[in-house]
Amino acid sequence: MNIDYIRDRLGSVVGNTDKFYSMADSGILSLGRLAVGVVLARVAGAEAFGEFVLLTTIGVIIMSLVTAKYFTPMIVLTSGALDVGKGRVIGWFKARLLRVHLVGIVLGVTGLTVVNFFDFDLWIYLAFIASTLSGLELCFYRSRMQSEFRMRRGLNADILGLLSMGGVMYLMWFHFDRPALGFWIGSSIGSGCAIFLMRRCLPENRDANIGSIELEKTELMETTRMGNSMFVGSMANSICSRVQPFVLASVGGTIAVATFGVAWSFLGPIRMLTASLTGVLRPRLAKFRQKEDWVAFNRYSRLSCRTLGVVGAVGVVIAAVLGSNIAVFVFGEPMRSAGYLLPIAFAYATLDAVTTCLLYTSD
Prior knowledge:
The protein is mainly alpha-helical. The protein has helices spanning 3-15, 17-43, 46-78, 83-110, 112-118, 122-147, 151-176, 179-201, 205-208, 217-241, 244-265, 267-291, 294-331, 342-361. The longest helix has 38 residues, at 294-331.
């Protein structure tokens, strides 16, 4: 893969402005979550960071399941659709999101029993519920921005949300010494600010179509089939890759979760870079497939996987030598022991990256 090719691909990505802004949005949100974790680990301690990891994991599971069930099918069905049909589909998904909110409130109240088991602060738990519900609403509008190809303004809205969250978190830390509570409150306020800005950017006639709307039989079958299959896949992924913090919490407490969370925090940016790479590769590989140029297709596919493997192997070696120093430099001295997990985390990230690349570049 020569320099001219890389320059051409970067120019293609930047030239496709909505794709570029969508990638930038994902990157900024991922780095924002990493920054929050670093701040909490340094100023609030390992206990607060472990609690943050547990609650964040619950939020990610909920968000991924709802996204797979509703938001991703909505993007697929509404991108490029006519205004009338698009409004009807969006209205149907909006009505389902209201049901999700109601179920979330019921589950949140029921989950008060979990507060005592994991020794959560009650106010933090309540703020987490508000943050999760507002985050679902924000994800709905972000999905609409993607389907309308307006992610430049979506990026601005998410930046406003992050800045609002950071401001509230700082005020709660400075005045009340409660940075963790400030994060969840600030996350709710930040989501509200981002939603407000996104709503102003979207066509007004869409919301007028939201209500008790039923889709035609063929549309309903396509929507439910797509959503159900994605939901099952997301559920399997959550069971395989997101239950570890809860097992650790039941066995070793929040300190063990915090140690695990330090290593896991590095995986978000790595996965984002992997998704960006596959996003750049897929159009070129699709062109090779259409031309039935299988020699070039296989060459680029193998080169991409080998590049990821080599970079990942170098990362594993660096983590093995400097893991403890990296953990202390980023998260503080109390998290030194997490450095021993970094080589394993980087090895897992490498396998995940290569597998993802194979998935999207396989014939």
